Amino acid sequence: MRAVVTGAAGFIGSHLCDHLLDCGDEVTGIDAMTDYYDLARKEANLAPLHGRRGFSFRHGDLLALPLVTLFAHADVVYHLAGQPGVRPSWGHGFAAYLERNVLATQHVLEAARTALPGRLIYASSSSVYGDAEAYPTAESLRPQPVSPYGVTKLAAEHLCELYRTAFGVPTTSLRLFSVYGPRQRPDMAFAQLIAAAASDEAFTLFGDGEQTRDFTYVGDVVSALRQAGLSSWTGVANIGGGNRITMNRVLGLLDELAAPVRVVRIPDQSGDVRHTAADITLARRAFGYQPRVDIREGLRAMVEAERVTLSAVAR
Ligand code: NAD
């Protein structure tokens, strides 16, 4: 398979490139190397990929690159580039969300309509649901995002559906639920927890800790992305990990696996949802998705990987 991965230097994108190359695919990675977090991390994510057979990289913004040329021979475009993060999406930060999540996706879809012989898989988000009407949440329930980030992810997902129905571009949007694992973005809770466990810094916990999340191991996510890429199914499907637990329980697990974390509790922030839980029946039926990594195993793998990284930084 010939694949294009947008957002290849990011957390999930770099794991996806690894997985596709392991499967024998040819991969062109694209990334603008935005400065949302430390660029050194993105360079570190890319470094091992550069040496791998079948991998090439194009540095640039989706709004400026010749996407028609880049997509011309692709069997699958995995569109992961975007502006993540719920809390910074309020206020002035919104412009970046609009540009990187909505406008960039429209450029990708226009190029796909013109030139893509294959399919387009879009990384959507559980944030589209907001405070969902029921748990576990099925795709048939009404999305009602509670953050500007969620609004932009939903808008991009609607654009994918629109290009699918209006022009026949075979698009699939996967609503990813709280992805974790090695190389997780430093603004995400698990990465911050592990960094706090390895230092004397406190971890800031929003709310009472009884909020739940359906955590999904990054290895399961990249398998789902490729399975969707190989399948002829199109549409919108949830990708959850079946690991729905409270943040208080995560703290307990981390205490067992690494070290106790000093916690500072502050009130919930606007845009934070109370619970998430994915009904994954559709993804299972459509392309055989089955999460394999439970939270203890996944968190242990992440702690081990971050320990190596943190001790290398300390040296
Ligand atoms: P990330 O920030 O690590 O990766 C995104 C990458 O996209 C970055 O390296 C950035 O430089 C690149 N990028 C942004 N705008 C670009 C543009 N216009 N042109 C080219 N490159 C651009 O984030 P991540 O956590 O790996 O998330 C990847 C995708 O998955 C995002 O679309 C995010 O919304 C979605 N998602 C993530 C999660 C999660 O839990 N991490 C959950 C649901 C959905």
What can you tell me about this protein's structure?
By secondary structure, the chain is of the alpha/beta class. It has a single domain, classed as 3-Layer(aba) Sandwich (Rossmann fold). Helix content is 42%, strand content 18%. The strands form 3 sheets. A 7-stranded parallel beta sheet has the order 3-2-1-4-5-6-10, sandwiched between helices. Strands 7-9-11 form a 3-stranded mixed beta sheet. A two-stranded parallel sheet has the order 8-12. The mean pLDDT is 95. Nicotinamide-adenine-dinucleotide binds next to helix 1, strand 2, helix 4 and strand 5.
Secondary structure elements and their pairing?
Blueprint: E1 2-6, H1 11-22, E2 26-31, H2 39-50, E3 55-59, H3 67-71, E4 76-79, H4 94-115, E5 119-125, H5 148-167, E6 171-176, E7 179-180, H6 189-197, E8 203-206, E9 212-217, H7 218-230, E10 235-239, E11 243-246, H8 247-257, E12 263-266, H9 281-287, H10 295-314
Parallel strand pairs: 1-2, 1-4, 2-3, 4-5, 5-6, 6-10, 7-9, 8-12
Antiparallel strand pairs: 9-11
Helix pairs in contact: 1-2, 1-7, 4-5, 6-10
Bound molecules: nicotinamide-adenine-dinucleotide (NAD).
Nicotinamide-adenine-dinucleotide (NAD) is lined by residues 6-7, 9-13, 30-34, 36, 42, 61-63, 80-84, 100, 104, 123, 125, 153, 176, 178-179, 185.
In the CATH scheme, the class would be Alpha Beta
Reported by name, the CATH topology is Rossmann fold
Ligand names: nicotinamide-adenine-dinucleotide
For the largest beta sheet, what order do the strands appear in spatially?
Answer: 3-2-1-4-5-6-10
